[in-house]
Amino acid sequence: MQPLESPPPHDLVVHADRALVDGALHPVVVVVDDGRVSALLEPTAAPAGRTVLRLADDEVLLPGLVDTHVHVNEPGRTEWEGFASATRAAAAGGVTTVVDMPLNSLPPTTSPEALEVKRAAARAAGPVVDVAFWGGAVPANTRGDGSLRRLLEAGVLGVKSFLQDSGVPEFPPLDADALHRAASELAGARGLLLVHAEDPAVLAAAPAPQGRSYAAFEASRPPEAEAVAVRRVVDVVAATGCRAHAVHLSSAAGVAVVREARAAGLPVSAETCPHYLALAGSVPDGAPQHKCCPPVRGPADADALWQALTDGVLDVVVSDHSPSTPELKELASGDLDAAWGGISSLEVAARVVWTAARERGIGLVDVVRWTSQGPADLVGLGGKGRIAVGADADLLVLAPDAEVRVDARRLHHRHPVTPYDGARLRGQVRRVLLAGVEIDAERPHGRLLGPGGTGVTA
């Protein structure tokens, strides 16, 4: 009788006493083959693996995080940030997939040709995590001629628009007619419309910023501007059937509009960001590293955002990592009017949320849902954001109770500028695996993704 041959070893076997599977923490053995989870076994199982990883008692196994709001800025403004530095920062923070915003790069991603330029720059940089791309809706491609549909067909996950000045001249805002045309075209193509929702008329009527005064800057972009703009988006959704998503929601007034729209069954979603949840009411004067648009507001607004997350009105928390050079941040003068509006937080964003959530009695499972599965589901990357059979084996080993002090000089962002410098955050990233292989910045294996998580070539 011939002896039975042993089955070949699996690529990777992970033993975890706590792993986030099906919305709860369980003991499990995760088996990985060909970059995907091939089996989830009982903790007593002992399958053979070419690589075997056993988590320590203080570690949990989580799906890799997904950040769908990252301004990489390359090509054209690579001195602000680039794919090499941004994806290293992402990996250091446990983020295994980023979706790049279409503006602040030159050219902006508003055509299939510009998307190819962006992909070529990303591939040349050697991304260490997976990268997907948003397109942009601007007046030139919202004339009803099929430009947005062609951009979707070229591989973007959706398109982003502004209702007010974006801050860069090559990415102008949409007026009411252009917004309606964009939504109509995207509805026909089953595309997603992202909107930076601040109303230009309300902003124009608001008081001007005054140098270093944070209160004056906050007053210059009142919550009414957000609420009016979100209402406009909701009305366009109701008229066209387009699926729309309000980025970086900052206020209780904005939450109220989204809550009402979702209760009415409209395909409207929204995200918020770590700074709106964790920095509310604590921004000092003359500290431009805290400046963003819309601004960080007061504790009541943060409470409303947390409640919306808890209630399921908001499903997504993303960084809105929007860096620039230190000179553009006006760090020396502290002039909040002149400073570039953007917060650098990609590497620390999820841990900022986890630290603040703990103080409110909110558990890790909820935080990971908002920072991993929620963003993945928003953009249709069903193989991301979960530990499940068939999903990509993008895995994060986190020590959730460990405390780490942020040193901006040691972050992987291109410039050491962040409002979290010196903060003590819960959660230490111990290992990050992409497609079942531990990330090594010297041997990058990140992919460029299209719709559904399909790989594309530059």
Topology (SSEs and partners):
Blueprint: E1 10-21, E2 24-33, E3 36-41, E4 49-54, E5 60-63, E6 65-70, H1 83-92, E7 95-100, H2 112-125, E8 130-133, E9 135-136, H3 147-154, E10 159-162, H4 176-189, E11 192-196, H5 200-205, H6 214-220, H7 223-240, E12 243-246, H8 252-263, E13 268-272, H9 274-278, H10 299-311, E14 316-317, H11 349-359, H12 364-378, E15 395-405, E16 424-434, E17 437-438, E18 448-449, E19 455-456
Parallel strand pairs: 1-4, 6-7, 7-8, 9-10, 10-11, 11-12, 12-13, 13-14
Antiparallel strand pairs: 1-2, 2-3, 5-15, 15-16, 16-17, 18-19
Helix pairs in contact: 4-7, 7-8, 8-10, 11-12
Account of the protein in words:
The chain is of the alpha/beta class and 458 residues long. 29% of the residues lie in helices and 23% in strands. It has helices spanning 83-92, 112-125, 147-154, 176-189, 200-205, 214-220, 223-240, 252-263, 274-278, 299-311, 349-359, 364-378; strands at 10-21, 24-33, 36-41, 49-54, 60-63, 65-70, 95-100, 130-133, 135-136, 159-162, 192-196, 243-246, 268-272, 316-317, 395-405, 424-434, 437-438, 448-449, 455-456. The strands form 5 sheets. A 6-stranded parallel sheet has the order 9-10-11-12-13-14.
